[in-house]
Design brief:
The protein has 251 residues and is of the alpha/beta class. The chain contains 8 helices and 7 strands, in the order E-H-E-H-E-H-E-H-E-H-E-H-H-H-E.
Length: 251
């Protein structure tokens, strides 16, 4: 049984929380006694997630946010600080992927992947660290991908963004060690998870269905369980990169 009692009364910010993995993480942490700040672009869906957390007895703040806009990120953290006093746990879950070839991919699509998966993740991390550094306690969790450990077919740019997340995770770990900080950082890299991702990635509903029906794939709740497990580790344990695959996934 994962014990998250140390985090009760603390605040977690989850990006990309309007559906899928982000929603599952918000609901899990909210029911474990953390106040949750949820952000995404879809305001209506975000409000529904916040309402679910509150109906389960938790505290939630929904802040519609476009992570490609710096002003939106600044406002997100201002709202979190005004409402809850700052961030103790950051879950960088938001991610954007398209099956775009390096031969003829669209520049704007490449830019969107880099801005959401790498730049916004870094900005959110910097802002959360400013809060965590006050008491030198906190945890940064990046929801990455198995695509950060191998290049699946033609998805070169998407995979490159996830390789960057691996580098950013280790870079932050080294910086925290140089400061002798108790703040921890973890990357969680799932394989196939049944979310909206595949349909967006392939821009094809049938291809998405094939992806998720070929064998039993992971569910968003499995990733939420992994987040809880990481947060529940003793102070002296830091999970660095947690890889999760469905049992029958080959690559």
């Amino acid at each position: 049984m994962t014990d998250l009692s140390r985090w009760k009364g603390k605040t977690a910010l989850i990006t990309g929380a309007s559906s899928g993995i982000g929603r599952a993480i918000a609901l899990r942490l909210g029911t474990e006694g953390l106040s949750v700040v949820v952000c995404a672009r879809r305001a209506g869906r975000l409000d529904e997630v916040a309402a679910e957390v509150e109906s389960a007895g938790g505290k939630a703040l929904a802040v519609p946010t476009d992570l490609r806009k710096t002003d939106d990120i600044d406002r997100l953290f201002e709202r979190a600080r005004d409402e809850f006093g700052g961030i103790d746990v950051l879950v960088n879950n938001a991610g954007f992927g398209k099956n775009q070839s390096l031969f003829d991919g669209e520049t704007e699509t490449w830019r969107a992947m880099l801005e959401v998966n790498v730049l916004a993740l870094s900005i959110c991390t910097r802002e959360a660290l400013a809060d965590m550094s006050r008491a030198d306690v906190g945890h940064v969790i990046h929801i990455s991908s198995m695509s950060g450990h191998r290049v699946p077919g033609p998805a070169g740019m998407y995979s490159a963004t996830k390789f960057a997340v691996r580098s950013l995770t280790e870079g932050l770990r080294r910086e925290l060690r140089a400061r002798d900080s108790d703040i921890r950082v973890t990357s969680i890299s799932p394989g196939f998870v049944e979310t909206e991702f595949a349909e967006i990635y392939h821009d094809n509903t049938a291809r998405a269905r094939e992806t998720y029906e070929q064998f039993q794939v992971l569910q968003p709740s499995d990733i939420a369980d992994s987040v809880a497990h990481v947060l529940g580790a003793p102070d002296y344990v830091q999970y660095h990169d947690l890889l999760l695959r469905p049992t029958h996934q080959v690559s």
